[in-house]
UniProtKB/TrEMBL annotation:
Organism for this UniProt entry: Coemansia javaensis
Localization in the cell: Mitochondrion
UniProt GO BP: mitochondrial tRNA threonylcarbamoyladenosine modification
Name this protein carries in UniProt: N(6)-L-threonylcarbamoyladenine synthase
Molecular function, one GO term: tRNA N(6)-L-threonylcarbamoyladenine synthase activity
């Protein structure tokens, strides 16, 4: 399976076998392009995707010593994401699939995150399972019943946890890490937090009041705003490294504790209300590579006698491998798409089952 992805700011391609072996992969990052703007600039991202996509495709095929004739099928990110970015990978994927008469699989970006943990571990990560998707664009919990079938339990009421990490890093004036070190403001905040004292600044864990304590939803805007107000009243100085580290550690602990509490509620709801027995807890998305978040979720899993499964950190962030693997999973079930598909900017994950696919037999 050859896959392309450009839903946000990474131009990625990968080839994955039906057994889950990564044959080759290429990912061109844009961290330095957007750092000076403090966040992703959609127009700039699209321009760089247009420059990078042909090179990424060629490099991925060359690494695998393959040609398009050797590829069984093509998978491509269809949404959700930035429209201008999505249009680049979708155009490339549709064109190559059509010209070479290959089956085309349009992939939901968040389903790819949800299924990534199954690659090469299908016996260990069996359906159904509870999944926490935490990234720069999304924060949600869901039960993954099967490929193409998901029940959404909770989602963020405002900012995603990844967006909160990014904006707090900006409040603290933390330089972004290079791509080889994880890249972006969130990993930079985590690295700085290792030298911080989380007890020095008391940051509130969101949604602890009785009205929202039992909700399955998440909220991070208040936590982010609390850090901003601290800076505005001079409670810390972004120019003092220890202040930066202590606030980063306090924010990270509060965010991880919020995710822990809501994941525990989601698991209880899945068991009681949905009468579902999850086989494990999966955490995926860019923030799932954060060690404090993993430790908090591991505590929930251990308390409930379940394993916590996370993809390797480099496969938690956006990548072509997860698109390729989801393409494999969907192709096995005959969930194919016509060459005329368009991107879907806003695409609730639990609507996938209503897309009207007509499964067809595949020999893949």
């Amino acid at each position: 399976m050859l896959a392309f992805s450009s839903s946000c700011d990474d131009t990625a391609a990968a080839i994955v076998s039906d057994s889950g072996q990564i044959v080759s992969e290429t990912n061109r990052h844009q961290h330095r392009v957007h750092e000076e703007h403090g966040g992703i600039v959609p127009g700039l991202a699209a321009d760089h995707h247009l420059r990078n996509m042909p090179l990424v495709v060629r490099e991925t095929l060359e690494k695998a010593a393959m040609r398009m004739e050797d590829v069984d099928a093509v998978a491509v990110t269809r949404g959700p994401g930035l429209p201008a970015s999505l249009s680049v990978c979708l155009a490339a994927g549709k064109a190559l699939a059509a010209v070479h008469a290959k089956p085309l699989v349009g992939v939901h970006h968040m389903e790819a995150h949800a299924l990534m943990a199954r690659m090469g571990a299908e016996d260990a990560v069996r359906f159904p399972y509870l999944c926490l998707l935490v990234s720069g664009g999304h924060t949600l919990s869901l039960v993954v019943h099967d490929v193409n079938e998901h029940t959404l339990l909770g989602s963020t009421r405002d900012d995603s946890v990844g967006e909160a990490f990014d904006k707090v890093a900006r409040e603290l004036a933390i330089p972004w890490l290079d791509a080889q070190d994880g890249g972006g403001p969130g990993p930079a905040l985590e690295a700085l937090a290792r030298d911080g004292d989380p007890a020095r600044f008391a940051l509130p864990v969101p949604m602890l009041k009785s009205a929202s304590a039992t909700s399955l939803d998440f909220s991070f805007s208040g936590l982010k705003a609390h850090v901003r107000r601290m800076r505005e009243r001079g409670a810390f100085s972004p120019a003092v490294r220890q202040d930066q580290a202590d606030v980063a550690a306090a924010f990270q602990r509060a965010a991880a504790d919020h995710l822990r509490r809501k994941t525990a509620l989601a698991l209880a709801h899945a068991r009681a209300a949905l009468r579902t027995a999850p086989t494990c807890i999966v955490a995926s998305g860019g923030v799932a590579s954060n060690h404090a978040v993993r430790a908090a979720l591991a505590a929930v899993a251990a308390r409930n006698g379940l394993p916590l499964v996370c993809p390797p950190p480099r496969l938690c962030t956006d990548n072509g491998v997860m698109i390729a693997w989801t393409g494999v999973e969907r192709l096995r079930r005959g969930l194919l798409d016509p060459y005329t598909i368009d991107f879907i900017q806003r695409w609730p994950l639990d609507r996938l089952r209503h897309m009207g696919y007509q499964p067809r037999t595949s020999s893949f």
